[in-house]
Amino acid sequence: MKSTLLAGLACLLVCGTAWAEDPITFEAQSGETVAAFQGQFEVPEHRGNPDSRMISIGYVRFPALDGADGPPIVYLAGGPGGSGTGTAQGRRFDLFMQMRAHGDVIAFDQRGTGLSSNDLPRCQSSVSVSETEPVSDAAYAAAYRAAIAECYGFWQSEGVDIEGYTTRESVADISALRAHLGADHVTLWGISYGSHLAMAALKDIPDEIDRVVIASAEGLDQTVKLPAETNAYIARLQEAVNTQPEAAAAYPDIAGLMRRVQDRLHTDPMMIDVRLRDGSSRPFLLQRRHAQQMVSGLIADPESAVWLLGAYASLDRGETEFASQLIARFMGAPSTIGLNPMSTAMDLASGISDERLALYQSQVGEGLAGGYLNFPMPQALGVWPGFDLGDEFRRAPDGDTPVLLLTGTLDGRTYVQPQADALAGMDNLTQVIVRNSGHNLFMENDQVHTVIHRFMRDEPVGTDVIEAELPDFMELPF
After folding, report:
1. 10 Å Cβ neighbour count for 420?
2. CATH H superfamily, domain 2-120+164-220+396-467
């Protein structure tokens, strides 16, 4: 801690940049509080544009515990679009506090999020999609392409240099944060899209990174997941279900159940009533697309997969109440297509290689999530001409920076082998498999935390497999 403060004072003299922070009391959603510091610094919105405006990048710093002398630990939230400070308020608050044993912990809000939102306006386009008439997959994709094109013009009219919202620009922000803190190096700690950002940093600023802890990794050419990998996840889910006799009897063929329901909805959509929170209801034509969107939204963790199984089983019986409640809970009231600037731009910029796109297209017809796991990618490719970081950006990182990768076998958003493939060029990689865990595995159990702490102390992590408990696949939420 002392070395970081001294470095900060040195930067004040040499860099001409003050380490401006305000003391705050940080409160978690649990009601727990801790003394912390809130800081900010300015960067160009688009470094490739000399006329770009300056934007503010914000963070919260949790000071290291006594005896900790490691570099600052920068948390990179997922999404894209997640907030580091928002994550620190939630279920991971305890882990944020634990990580102070190794250095200052920085809840970093990436550009366009949280304290770094800079009042970026959400775009509510004029494009709508009917909820009561059949809409093909092609027409649905075309609607989103039209909305994305319209929103590009909207953000420009609002003075937003949207071309500055790329992963590569966020890497430069991390470098600016390191300099702002007066640190020689930082440790990166992230999950999901946060791992994508960390991998880009391993390529662009390797000399500024001490080590990396990531989970549920998304490689630089893995913004779009392959449908065959989603199908393989469903097979692993089946194996997990088969360990519970009652669930195995209820769901003997999950893939078959899903295909049966999807085929029926494709040929004969179901008109259902969706009850709203005010007690009223609205008609809704349930199509195959909606069932595949349920897959995309509910396979992140085994706990949410319980909802998926219940929804498909009820639809297979011709019952619509469960699906109606899911739609009411997750899809909200009808409106035109709305888009978040940061998340839209980041995914479009990261893009997909031609080789991977060809693989995706060859598999999507048989995919149990169809084309909806990453929607509106890759459907939106090319809507903003030239807005792509290119294949050099998508090349996987290499080097000898120590990397700890935590991978859940029942993660339906990022997958076991692709996570390892994304980091195959890192010579000092430690991968720990968390069996039966999903995408949000940082709070899975104490063994996960033990492995992280050992890695942070540069010790052998002691295991390559952690066993997690499965949920009861018959225990439906409602």
Report:
1. 16
2. Alpha/Beta hydrolase fold, catalytic domain (3.40.50.1820)
d(CA 169, CA 164): 6
The pTM score is 0.94
Q: Give the three-state DSSP class for 178.
A: helix
Tokens 């706990």: give the residue: 303
What tokens were used for 140?
């649905």
The count of other CB atoms within 10 Å of the CB of residue 272 is 18
pLDDT the model gives residue 319: 93
What are the residue ranges spanned by the domains of the chain?
A: 2-120+164-220+396-467, 122-159+226-385
Query: Which residues are 271's β-sheet partners?
Result: 285
The structure tokens 């937003």 sit at 160
Q: To 10 degrees, the CA torsion angle through 21, 24, 28, 30?
A: 170
Residues 6+ apart with CB under 8 A from 82: 113, 192, 193, 194
58, 37, 369: which is closest to 225 by C-alpha? 369
Write out the two tokens for 232.
Answer: 């393989």
- pLDDT band at residue 19 under the 50/70/90 scheme: low
Residue 16 has pLDDT above 90, yes or no: no
| Amino acid in the structure at residue 158 | E
Cα–Cα distance measured from residue 250 to residue 253, given in angstroms and rounded to the nearest whole number: 9
Q: Which secondary-structure segment (H or E) carries 33?
A: strand 33-44
Cis before 252 (ω within 30):
no
Q: Which pLDDT belongs to residue 328?
A: 83
Of 478, 475, 473, 474, the C-alpha closest to 237 is 473
The model's pLDDT over 35-53, given as tens digits with 9 standing for 90+, comes to 999 999 999 999 999 999 9
pLDDT tens per residue across span 336-361: 999 999 999 999 999 999 999 999 99
Complete edge-to-edge strand list for the sheet that includes strand 403-408: 21-27, 33-44, 54-62, 105-108, 73-76, 186-191, 209-215, 403-408, 429-435, 465-467
d(CA 238, CA 242): 6
Give the model's pLDDT for residue 331.
Answer: 67
Instruction: In whole angstroms, give the CA distance from residue 295 to residue 408.
Output: 18
∠ Cα 135 139 371 (to 5°): 90
